[in-house]
Design brief:
alpha/beta; Alkaline Phosphatase, subunit A; Arylsulfatase, C-terminal domain; 2 domains; 8-stranded mixed β-sheet; globular
Length: about 500
């Protein structure tokens, strides 16, 4: 090997080692600081809310800048399209049916470890800021040293012995500004918070808290989680007028009717959405305009946090994650909110900036699941052994241009009607239900899911192949059996 090739090989090896949590050597041979983690996530942000996912109209320059420097998972899916179950998966690496958090407002057990607890390194300073929604909302827990709380609407679900009259960090911040709750000892509602000036809203509050944490711990390794509520309902905020509704493009499947063979749950949801959000194009353009405004509001605060990271000289030592806990239909099929298996509900943005791999964009087209988030971060932070026993896999081989063992994505829904979904690398999507109609979509030909092919009689081989995949996944993860009957009363299939 000549000297030039030898130097290239050594350089590549050094980058690889640094990228995956093994640390870089200084000139004196001493290891630099351990990699930091900045984990930023939102609530109810669908994938197409930034340019890299196809939306060039929405004004989110900081999302776009981060995406230009990150690994971009183009087809990233949640484990379950609702808050608590998927939040638990993101924090612990466990499927909802494994963690036991099958629906909202179930507390995460103390013995179930989050990523910071799996790493279990006393050198790290740790903080959780923002929405938690995994029980005992405003109280520090699961190994986080600092806890900045924001939501006061979950006190009914506090554990026995918790003070239900206690209030969040954000509540006390508003009191300090002279705001008063509507009733004595009451809470500030989400609507009230959303009506405040930009400087007093929740994103700005979290931005200031996160930047303060970074400044105080600039000389120590840290793990900082920042979770924004926005763009979650009430779908209003200080940037409501930022976008002209007349310039909003309605989703391509806005006028797609829900045919008879679509799940009854979807049709019920359609009726509910019509009552809550309206039915006309004008109604939806105004709603989407406000939703975009909330994304732009978060973008401002994300930009400030990332700028602080840069100014403090921490960007080269900090892995940055940006994602959401689930998407939102936001006009697709004239539906709003989440809880359905359509792409807009189950797909989310997922950006991963690993400084030692270079601040450049790389696109990963293969479908991936957030169940793999914890194992991936554990490897990147030099603790791959801590992922032992978790059902997911590290995506580091995929990031490096190779392959991973599991290439199908699974999604679950755990209240009636229960659903188990698989998305294949060849872009088929099968949704099996034990109490409702099943769905089959060819995402290559029909990316907006306008034609349910399950009962067409033309894709028996695809259904059989993907049904077997779901059954094997259920068996491997100790899932609950699911009996499926198609609309003709045929093909009774027991998934083990």
């Amino acid at each position: 090997m000549d000297r030039r090739r030898f130097m290239r090989t050594c350089a590549a090896s050094a980058i690889s080692s640094a990228a995956f949590g093994l640390g870089k050597l200084s000139a004196g041979g001493a290891k630099k600081r351990k990699p930091n983690l900045l984990f930023i996530w939102t609530d109810e942000q669908r994938a197409d809310t930034m340019a890299v996912y196809g939306n060039s109209k929405i004004r989110v320059p900081n999302f776009n800048k981060l995406a230009s420097q990150s690994i971009v998972f183009e087809r990233a899916y949640v484990t379950q399209p609702v808050c608590t179950p998927n939040r638990a998966a993101v924090m612990t690496g466990l499927w909802p049916h494994e963690s036991g958090l099958l629906t909202n407002n179930i507390p995460l057990p103390r013995e179930t470890r989050c990523l910071n607890e799996l790493i279990d390194d006393p050198d790290y300073r740790t903080a959780y800021m923002g929405k938690w929604h995994l029980g005992d909302e405003i109280f520090a827990q699961h190994g986080f040293e600092e806890w900045i709380s924001m939501e006061d609407g979950y006190s009914a679900y506090y554990a026995k012995g918790r003070d239900r009259a206690a209030r969040s960090s954000y509540h006390h911040y508003l009191l300090g500004l002279g705001h008063k709750p509507a009733s004595q000892g009451g809470r500030f509602s989400r609507g009230y918070a959303a009506s405040l000036p930009l400087e007093q809203c929740k994103p700005k509050f979290l931005e200031r808290s996160a930047c303060d944490f970074l400044r105080r711990h600039r000389n120590e390794p840290f793990m900082l989680y920042v979770n924004f509520l926005e763009p979650h309902m009430p779908f209003t905020g200080p940037l409501d007028e930022m976008y002209d509704p007349d310039e909003i493009d309605l989703p391509p499947n806005f006028n797609d009717p829900l045919e008879e063979n679509e799940p009854d749950k979807c049709k019920k949801k359609l009726r509910d959405c019509a009552r809550k959000y309206g039915t006309t194009e004008k109604d939806f353009r105004e709603l989407i305009a406000r939703y975009w405004g909330l994304n732009s509001q978060v973008d401002l605060s994300v930009g400030a946090i990332l700028d602080t990271l840069q100014r403090l000289g921490l960007a080269d030592d900090t892995i940055v994650v940006y994602t959401s806990d689930h998407g939102d239909m936001m006009g697709s099929h004239r539906l709003v909110e989440k809880g359905l298996m359509y792409e807009e509900s189950v797909r989310v943005p997922w950006l991963l900036r690993v400084p030692a791999m270079g601040f450049r964009q790389r696109l990963i087209a293969q479908p991936v699941s957030q169940i793999d988030l914890v194992p991936t971060l554990l490897e990147l932070m030099g603790r791959p052994q801590a992922a032992e026993g978790l059902p997911g896999q590290s995506l580091v081989p995929l990031i490096k241009g190779g392959k991973v063992a599991a290439d199908h994505v699974f999604i679950e829904w755990n209240t009636a009607p229960r659903v188990r979904t698989v998305v294949s690398p060849d872009r088929w999507k099968l949704c099996l239900s034990n109490e409702d109609k099943c769905q089959l979509f060819n995402l290559s030909d029909d990316p907006y899911e306008t034609m349910n092919l399950y009962d067409s009689g033309e894709h028996a081989a695809v259904i059989a192949r993907l049904t077997e995949k779901i059954g094997r996944w259920q068996k491997n993860t100790n899932d609950i059996p699911l009996r499926v009957v198609n609309s003709r009363g045929q093909n009774h299939t027991l998934l083990l």
